[in-house]
Amino acid sequence: MYKKILTIAVLMALFFVYGIDKVSALSQVGATASFVLGQPNLNGCATGPNGWSYEKSIGINGTQVSVFDGKLVVPSGNENRVLIYNSIPTQNYVSADVVVGGSTTCSRYPSWDGSELLSTPLGVAYGGNNFLISEAYSNRISVYSHGFPTSNGQIPDVVIGQPERSDSYKSANQGLTVGANTLSLPFSMQIVNGKLIVADRGNNRILIYNSVPTTNNASADIVIGQPNTTSNTVNNGGISASSLNAARGYILMEPSFTFLILEITAY
Description:
Elements: H1 9-15, E1 23-24, E2 36-37, E3 66-68, E4 71-76, E5 81-85, E6 98-101, E7 121-127, E8 130-135, E9 140-144, E10 158-160, E11 186-192, E12 195-200, E13 205-209, E14 222-224, E15 247-253, E16 258-263
């Protein structure tokens, strides 16, 4: 059976942390971690109510962990929160400086009763003083237009993929048909030279916005993996160098700006 393999296991492991409730710093392949976040020690694996802490616990699920301007940003996808450390921690079980989304109790799925809540945040991006969080199960991207959040539960300024931030607008493709302004299971993101690049997994495409949107429901300028912005067919036109299937992430290699795209099912 033919598969398009656009990356390898090593790159995939570097890009995502799968199903592990720890984030460890590695200096070389096979090295022993010096400290751990999300657990009280390197042997811990507690999740949920057992020892749960709003500022310390991490529930990772296919998450894009990143460092921006010296800050460590960890989306806790299983707990609908993003933890921001103002500097990279140097000891076990450090509290995050800022937490957005989730709730102050051990609730993985808080009720949809506030615009400050997040739904399965999996990707983060930063550039041009914009901090973005992709919310896979609300099919949207939240934008903080004035830099990193500075207080717990801070409300985003702009939403991409939906007309507004509310319980009424969280369906894939806004409950309608796919378009330049819609999203379905957005995963990883990156801001490069002012352009926002988004892996729109459920629509089997990569979207490029020529600038980070400043208003709700903005449309993408370029689409990769589909012939136009109103198509989302798996491997549209058949498996080829121009088609995609469930594009979950990518790595943009500088200075040539070469794409390595991760497809979960490419056959």
